[in-house]
Write a structure and sequence with these properties.
With about 250 residues, the chain is mainly β. The chain has no helices and 19 strands.
Length: about 250
C-alpha cells in the first residue's frame, strides 16, 4: 500500500497559513510570500552566464575564479534538475559561485527566508569550503562579504550556521555532518530578524543561539548565493544544488 504524504504548513503569528510543505522531507511546496523565486534548474535554458553578463529572464550568473578552472554548470539529465559548483585539484585560489549578479532583492527585515535542497557530491577537502544562503554583493572570499546569513561547511563535513550584519559576526556549529551523496533540506528564516532561525530537514539546529541580524535599509537587502571556494591549495569539492526557494514580504 502506498503511504500518503500529509502536507505540513507554517502559520503566521495571526494564525494565517504562510506555506505548505511536504511533512516527510521538510521541503516547502508552496509559499505565499509576495516576493519569491523558486528554482529547480529543469529544462534546456540553464547555461549559466558569467557575472556581469546576465541573460534576460534568467536569475543566475556564475563567478569563476581560477585558471584550472572550477565550474558552475547544470548536471546533464539529472532527475529533478541539478546545478553543480565544482572545484578542481589545481593548487590555486578558486571560486565557483552561483548568485544573482548582485541584484539584491530579499530584505532580512521583511521576513526573508531561503531554502535549499542540496548534497555534497564530493565532500570538500583541504581548505575548500561551501557556503550557501543570503549574502550581499560578491567579494573575493565569501568570509569577506559585508552581510550574510548562511550555512557553511568545511572539509570535516560539519555544517556551521553564520550571520554577519555589519556589527556582529556569529558562527555556531549545527551539530550536523554531511556525507557524500545525501541530499538534505536547509532553511534560513528571518521572520523575526532579531532571532534568525536555521533548519536542516525541518529540525531547528540553531542550538539555542539567538542570531540577531541588526542591519537595516539597503544593508539588509541580500541575494541568494552558493559558492564552492578555496583560498589556495589542492582541495576539491562539488556541491549539487537540486533546488533553491527564496521569498520575503514587500513591506
Amino acid at each position: 500500500m502506498t503511504a500518503i504524504v500529509v502536507p505540513s504548513g507554517r502559520l503566521s503569528s495571526l494564525g494565517h497559513l504562510q506555506s505548505v510543505g511536504d511533512a516527510s522531507t521538510a521541503e516547502t511546496l508552496l509559499d505565499y510570500s509576495p516576493v519569491s523565486l523558486f528554482e529547480d534548474f529543469t529544462g534546456p535554458g540553464n547555461a549559466v552566464p558569467a557575472a556581469g553578463s546576465a541573460a534576460v529572464g534568467y536569475p543566475w550568473v556564475k563567478k569563476i575564479v581560477g585558471g584550472a578552472p572550477p565550474t558552475v554548470a547544470v548536471v546533464a539529465n539529472a532527475a529533478g534538475g541539478v546545478m553543480a559548483c565544482t572545484l578542481t585539484a589545481t593548487s590555486e585560489k578558486q571560486d565557483a559561485a552561483l548568485y544573482s549578479d548582485d541584484a539584491l532583492n530579499f530584505d532580512m527585515t521583511k521576513s526573508a527566508w531561503i531554502e535549499f535542497r542540496l548534497a555534497n557530491q564530493v565532500l570538500p577537502t583541504g581548505n575548500a569550503q561551501f557556503v550557501f544562503g543570503l549574502q550581499s554583493a560578491w567579494i573575493d572570499g565569501p568570509d569577506n562579504a559585508s552581510f550574510y546569513a548562511q550555512f557553511s561547511q568545511s572539509a570535516s563535513g560539519l555544517v556551521n550556521l553564520r550571520t554577519k550584519d555589519g556589527t556582529t559576526t556569529a558562527s555556531v556549529s549545527s551539530g550536523v555532518t554531511m556525507v557524500a551523496g545525501a541530499y538534505r533540506v536547509f532553511r534560513i528564516d528571518s521572520t523575526d530578524p532579531t532571532h534568525v532561525r536555521f533548519f536542516i530537514d525541518g529540525a531547528e539546529v540553531s542550538n539555542g543561539t539567538a542570531f540577531s541580524f541588526a542591519a537595516t535599509g539597503a544593508s539588509a537587502i541580500l541575494q541568494p548565493y552558493v559558492s564552492a571556494y578555496k583560498a589556495s591549495g589542492t582541495g576539491v569539492g562539488t556541491v549539487y544544488i537540486d533546488r533553491i526557494a527564496v521569498g520575503a514580504k514587500r513591506s
